[in-house]
Amino acid sequence: MIKKTFRILGLLEALSIIALFGIAMPLKYGFGILGATQIPGLIHGIFFMGYVALATQLATQEQWPRKQLFHAYLASVAPLGTLVFDRKYLQ
After folding, report:
1. How many CB atoms lie under 10 A from the CB of residue 63?
2. How far apart are alpha carbons 34 and 66 in whole angstroms?
3. Are 75 and 37 in contact (CB under 8 A)?
4. Other Cβ atoms closer than 10 A to 46
5. Around Cβ 3, how many Cβ atoms within 10 Å?
6. DSSP class of residue 65?
7. How many domains is the chain built from?
8. What single DSSP character describes residue 24?
9. Given pLDDT bands bounded at 50, 70 and 90, which one contains residue 8?
């Protein structure tokens, strides 16, 4: 169950960064709508923190090697990295 939740959270994290970079930031910096990044940024931050927390929990539960956990952490900060991590390690 936690693995499925982790995979879904990784997808949501990736979609939220697309929305933040592709929609909210152009609205803010291109059109001067200053509050455009507040809600998408908050949502992305929540997904990011959840992804890191679940990665840690799943790594402990499934006894991942430290390198794999490090790659999960790295994936969480790289744009769309969660999708790459999912494909490489979780499928």
Report:
1. 7
2. 41
3. no
4. 14
5. 12
6. -
7. 1
8. I
9. very high
